[in-house]
Specification:
The protein has 112 residues and is an all-beta fold. 0% of the residues lie in helices and 46% in strands. The protein has one domain. The strands form 3 sheets. The chain has a 4-stranded antiparallel β-sheet with strand order 3-4-5-6, with no helix packed on it. The protein has a 3-stranded antiparallel β-sheet with strand order 7-8-9, with no helix packed on it. Strands 1-2 form a two-stranded antiparallel sheet.
């Protein structure tokens, strides 16, 4: 609820990494790991901002932020096929009106 993210290992109750206030205090609505690149995850906050984290590029801050204008995004899901090497990774965004938008992610965050 405060925008904090914690990365845990299954064998420990203590986080390996913790990012406080990662969304400037906005609640996190959804977080999902990329299906095609294990070091990348996506965060959706309550203000319809999507943050892209690539832990191999920068483990302190997101590498990109995209604001979805005009309408609240209520959830997101990632689309991709991990067994394929074509680098296609998409984000399905569900908006408050019921509309679904699908956007493709740049290959640099999708390829292994």
């Amino acid at each position: 609820s405060d925008g904090s993210i914690r990365l845990h290992q299954m064998t420990s109750e203590y986080p390996l990494m913790q990012w406080n206030d990662s969304t400037n205090g906005r609640p996190i609505i959804a977080l999902q790991w990329a299906l095609t690149r294990p070091s990348v995850f996506f965060v959706l906050d309550a203000s319809s901002n999507i943050y892209i984290w690539d832990l191999l590029e920068n483990d302190l801050f997101p590498v990109a932020k995209q604001t979805i204008p005009s309408e609240n995004v209520v959830t997101m899901a990632l689309l991709g096929e991990p067994e394929k090497t074509n680098g296609l990774l998409g984000i399905a965004l569900a908006k408050e009106s019921g509309q679904i938008d699908i956007q493709y992610v740049k290959k640099k965050w999708a390829l292994r």
